[in-house]
Design goal:
By secondary structure, this protein is α+β, with helices and mostly antiparallel strands. The protein has three domains: 108 residues, no CATH class; 31 residues, no CATH class; 123 residues, Nucleoside Triphosphate Pyrophosphohydrolase (Alpha-Beta Complex), CATH 3.90.79. The chain is built from six helices and 14 strands. A hairpin with a 5-residue loop joins β9 and β10. α3 runs antiparallel to α4. The radius of gyration is 21 Å and the shape is globular.
């Protein structure tokens, strides 16, 4: 949900938010459409400008995207959306979908969906915007496509010494550790996903699986469902495919952690405060 006036248009390129010259934090709320169209006049045909209905609000979010191959004008900069989210949230550990961060994540999610749904998945026709609802419509076969949302779980595992299991994924920046996460499979309950992903990635069994919170996470199109659970048996054994290292940490000896604004950081902070 987004119930704030962002103040302008959000521009995305790949996994980055594109900001005009000046104070980048001021531009996190968006900038004028006139500036966008003037600065990218030579690439106007490649600009995808669109409105997104805000949830539970009559307002709309204005956003745009440009191809990854498009050079940026002088002084413009690309800032990873994850970095933008951390800056907007500050040290607030809980994501608020009703604020600016919710607007940014919704706009970014839709921008990716529009890029990935340019053509119909059934007949290959070029999709257009449906006139009567927020969807893509194939003018050839009539198929409608809606923003894709993929449920995924993320879990903080706690042992009998009140330590938390944190893991280093091969895709993470050097030294950073986070929680075990994975996508829900067809025909699988969320609790089963938690147990399976943990066993597959770090080789341990868990019990007392309990849901805590959720967060939209469009990297690329997830809905993250946060859980906590207890260690039930077996020793840590990283799979070596996704997880390079995993170990138990106490509150006084933590590695670099995910940024604020993420559900992973929120769950870790709950544990640090003794609230899990």
């Amino acid at each position: 949900m987004c119930d704030v006036d962002s103040g302008g248009i959000f521009l995305f390129q790949g996994s980055a938010m594109i900001l005009p010259p000046g104070d980048s934090e001021d531009h996190f709320r968006g900038f004028g459409r006139e500036l966008l169209e003037a600065s990218f006049a030579d690439a106007r045909a490649d600009l995808d400008i669109f409105e997104i209905p805000a949830l539970n609000s009559p307002a709309a979010i204005l956003a745009a995207s440009i191809p990854v191959s498009q050079p940026l004008p002088s002084g413009w900069q690309a800032v990873p959306v994850r970095q933008v989210l951390s800056a907007v949230c500050g040290e607030k550990t809980r994501y608020s979908g009703s604020g600016l961060s919710g607007c940014i994540l919704r706009a970014y999610h839709v921008a990716q969906w529009r890029r990935d749904s340019r053509f119909c998945g059934c007949c290959g026709g070029k999709n257009t915007d449906a006139p009567d609802e927020f969807a893509r419509l194939c003018p050839v076969c009539g198929r409608r496509e809606y923003p894709r949302i993929s449920p995924a779980v993320i879990t903080i595992i706690i042992n009998d010494r009140d330590e938390a299991l944190l893991a280093h994924n091969k895709k993470f920046s050097q030294g950073m550790y986070s929680l075990i996460a994975g996508f829900n499979e067809a025909g699988e309950s969320l609790e089963d996903t938690v147990a399976r992903e943990i066993l597959e990635e770090v080789g341990i069994e868990v019990r007392d699986i309990r849901y805590i919170t959720s967060q939209p996470w469009p990297f690329p199109n997830s809905l993250m469902l946060g859980f906590t659970c207890r260690h039930a048996g077996l020793s840590i054994r990283p799979d070596g495919i996704e997880i390079e290292d995993a170990r138990w940490f106490n509150r006084d000896n933590l590695p670099p952690l995910p940024g604020y604004g993420s559900v992973s950081r929120y769950l870790i902070e709950l544990w640090r405060k003794g609230d899990l």
